[in-house]
């Protein structure tokens, strides 16, 4: 599939551009908040703008013309929508964004009527980092991340004003908390205001055995979910292209409750973060957009 789908000559033609971009991304990691705000991204040249804002469309440039990319464009916010969504993630006196509470059992979870979304995935896949990146315009919100797997031990609730709640989950797999299943399964099954689960997959590794178990569980419970591909700054374009197409095919053939579009992101350089803010605001019912 790799040979079929990826235009290698185009990759090498673009290698100069990629190395320039890579150098810029390294600079960005030294100044991490540089592209947290969409207005800064809008000042970039078109190619860089697309790479940061629409990583899937950017990837499409490297695919052969006969590859079906229609699911890349299911959720299509325009720049005004992205700005509107960003406003939800900027705190003010009237709109407080903050950590709320942690819970280790469903019956400890706070009763909240606001729409909720949660972030699930293998330990170390980048769940807490993604929440930190989403909240990068609210620097007082403390989201703890670690290079060591198994860092998040509880379900951590973060309130975005009175609009919606984000829930950072412990990871499954290596160093998962012992009571992971007792904690997370009842939450997924019983949480009435849970609007969508964001299941994070490492862009370089693709869907792993444990991810398959999580997908089967979400399918069995009939919980709407969406796949987010993390750490795309670390994945070569050819690897990412192969994984995106394989996962897209898998979603089409094997899932009912999964949103058809994947969301590739980097919490390091903010690729895909702006559109994800938009998708969350839309999921929570605060940003009406047509999905085609
Ligand atoms: N290069 C890169 N590193 C990332 C990215 N996201 C997370 N990381 C790194 O991956 C490691 C794990 O990140 P976390 O956000 O703590 O992962 P987690 O999924 O919350 O892990 P647990 O809480 O243990 O389940 C940290 O060292 C992060 O700096 C990313 O987009 N790019
Ligand atoms: Mg974590």
UniProtKB/TrEMBL annotation:
GO terms for cellular component: mitochondrion. Keywords: GTP-binding, Magnesium, Metal-binding, Nucleotide-binding. Coiled coil: none annotated. It comes from the Eukaryota. GO terms for molecular function: GTP binding; metal ion binding. Pfam families: MMR_HSR1. Residues 113-286 form the EngB-type G domain. InterPro entries: EngB_GTPase, G_ENGB_dom, GTP-bd, GTP-bd_ribosome_bio_YsxC, P-loop_NTPase. The keyword Magnesium applies. Its cofactor is Mg(2+). SUPFAM superfamilies: P-loop containing nucleoside triphosphate hydrolases. Belongs to the TRAFAC class TrmE-Era-EngA-EngB-Septin-like GTPase superfamily. EngB GTPase family. PANTHER family: GTP-BINDING PROTEIN 8. HAMAP family: GTPase_EngB. This is GTP-binding protein 8. It comes from Python bivittatus (Burmese python). The gene is GTPBP8.
